[in-house]
Amino acid sequence: MIGLNKKDFGLFLIVCFMALAAPILLNPFPVDSAMSDFNAGYPALMQKFAIFGIVVIGFNILFGLTGYLSFGHAAFLGAGSYAAVWMYKLLSFNVIFAIPASIIVAGLLSVVIGHISLRRSGIYFSILTLAFAQMSYALAYSVLTPITNGETGLQVYNNDPQVLMGEGALAEPHLFGLNLNNLTKVQVGGWEFTFEVGYYLCAIFLILAFYMSIRIFRSPFGMMLRAIKSNQNRLNYTGVSPKPYTLAAFIISGLYAGLAGGLMAAMDPLTGAERMFWTESGEIVLMSILGGVGTLIGPILGAGAIEYMSAIVSAITSADLKSWFGWLPDWLETIVIYVLYPFVGKGWHLTLGVVFMLVVIFLPGGLVEGGQRIGKLFSRKKPATAPGGSATPAE
Amino acid sequence: MQDIIIQILNGLDKGSAYALIALGLTLIFGTLGVVNFAHGALFLVGAFVAVTMQRILNLSYEVIDESQTDFLGNPLKVDTPYVIGWFGESAGNTLIDWAVPLAIFLAIPVMLIIGFVMERGLIKHFYKRPHADQILVTFGLAIVIGEIVKAFYGANPIQTPAPSSLPRTIDFGTWLGYEANAIVYPTWRLVYFFFSAIIIAGVFAFLQFTTFGMVVRAGMADRETVGLLGINIDKRFTIMFGLAASVAGLAGVMYTPILSPHYNLGMDFLVLSFVVVVVGGMGSLPGAVLAGFLLGILQSFASMNEVKAILPGIDQIIIYLIAIIVLLVRPRGLMGRAGVMED
Q1: Given this model, what pLDDT does residue B276 score?
Q2: A-chain residues within 8 Å CB-CB of B122?
Q3: What is the mean pLDDT of chain A?
């Protein structure tokens, strides 16, 4: 169906369902219940799930298939955001201009960076991409201030040309007049579900991005990328130059990141250079490892897991801990809270680091491999068939 | 000429820090073949050992001073550090004043232990795994160490001054025959440079002139053969890891008066040191030192106003720019050996 085999189509349907029903699925707890802090079904967070899902799906086409570990993808994200905001400034707030512009700009940047960086491989490639991203970041803060507005961050001002903006048009991002911030709240019993236009825009792009990624994974081009990962020498001996393929993969992943940057600017029409900082690139790498490198569904899981942690774990306060562990004897409660407190709230990065290390050490295939292992426990009779997206650790 | 000397001097302290970190990174890479992204975190731990030393020396008890009264008329309680109680006023104050240099003695055992634990507990299991996995797990470890430091010491930079009995600046120009106040340079930065020069010389001498160093160098060249000769090379490499950790730690301890340490310090230095290592050539110890000083000095030249007037923003990107050029022109780095990390 639509160019996918039965199994992939099933996976695709699952992702479609998850993306479209996310406002309901991610709100399992009633608003008034004690667990409502764990609800993730609010627009700002769901947008992040979808946007970072897109980035990591793209990153996975590069890292998962070819094994080239880029530490500079944040540059494309930032470039995409800048391009989108410039479109708001010059043309109008309609995202129909902003998003293609962000994809194009990120694509051009990725052609340049990819062309140079891909002359080396392994750790040198990582350092080169890191160097380019850090250069973009430093330049955005200093010399390029006329374009990036430096530390203030780029935003739309009243005296900007906005030539295509008619009288009385919306002064925030919209799609042909459909305000992306419009939302509908639906009350069902104790539950409240929020459906936002902006999230659905991201979700549709996520679905498209996912579909493209399945097609790439299953295409001859995808097979070529895998061949590059498993043995580049042999590829050279057969007379095939890997460079065009890796460059194409790099550009595709840059386009994905640019799209995500554009969507970020579509959700919130301002941007700053910090989106290009190397910790952002690091986070993209973390997401892709956590989910499962080289698998189809892994990137979405990884992006979701990390964004969820950053939103939920960082919101836990010591008062929350006290209320959860109040039933313990006092001395034990003190110890438990003392131990747990550094892991929540402002210290959520500690949780992230520990989880990440555990995953790299014990589950090189990420959450997907974890799921497969658990799945195997329950269905031992079945002969182990080769899984669709093989979860081999990345080179 | 004067300006050039000033810029070289300015580049030296940063260059020394880069060189020390890059030296440790290269030691680890050359011996164990592991790409250690947690090396910046070891630098960070060193810096916070200095902070801890300062706090230990300032641990105090309360003494009731009858001669003074507070605003309510009660006898004033004065905090007196234990060291002053034990060693008397002047000796105690000197000890507190010299907290940062004294922290070296605390840092060496602490860093050695951390190095051993890290190597035996974590890195050991990653020898057979791909480089990407090593990068990732040590990257995770770096996050964890940084966050633990944040949990204990907070997120703000902590002041750790250099000993106040040292003169704040020295008139470097008079040594070279310039008139007074032509080239004034902070004393501590010069101390830092000499300190790192001593450490670098020490590491090289250790590898070059001791039997232990000879075995380690043999192991770097051909691990298997050394093992077949009945030498427990793993044990020696573990010690080298501890040594590399202490080098990074000492670099951190002595750097605290130059830059007040905060929990993200390690990450800031890590990225640059990796660039330094790659520019110097993976696995080449002299290359790491050379590239460290070179990039430090180039960075300081790039931040001269005259240069910035011609090439705006060059000070921000010079290091990365050099790295890109070197990697494309000399793929092995300045002094890289053939066959190391070739892929």
Answers
A1: 87
A2: 361
A3: 86
* C-alpha distance from A11 to closest chain B C-alpha (Å): 28
Domain spans of chain A, in order of start: 6-277
Q: Residue range A157-177: average pLDDT?
A: 79
**Average of per-residue pLDDT values in chain B:** 85
Task: Kindly state the percentage of chain A with pLDDT values over 70.
Answer: 95
Q: What's the rounded mean pLDDT across residues B1-22?
A: 85
Q: Which of A120, A137, A361, A392 to mutate to test the interface with B (most CBs of B within 10 A)?
A: A361
Torsions phi, psi for B77 (to 5 deg): -90, 125
CB contact under 8 A, A350 and B147: yes
Q: Please state which of the four CATH numbers 1.10.520, 1.10.10, 3.40.50, 1.10.3470 is assigned to the domain occupying A6-277.
A: 1.10.3470
List the single residue in A with minimal CA-CA distance to B122: A361
Question: How many Å apart are CA B136 and CA B36, to the nearest integer?
Answer: 9
Count chain A–chain B contacts defined by CB atoms under 8 A.
Answer: 123
In the prediction, which pLDDT does A386 show? Answer: 45
Select the residue of A122, A142, A349 nearest B341 (Cβ to Cβ). Answer: A122
DSSP-assigned letter for residue B337: P
Residue of chain A minimizing CA distance to B311: A143
Residue ranges and CATH numbers for the domains of chain B are 2-61+101-329 (1.10.3470)
| pTM metric for this prediction | 0.85
Phi, psi of B154 (to 5 degrees): 80, 175
Rounded (10°) CA dihedral A316, A318, A320, A325: 120
CA distances from B167 to B103, B186, B188, B323, B338 (A): 20, 8, 9, 37, 47
Residue B338 has a pLDDT of 67
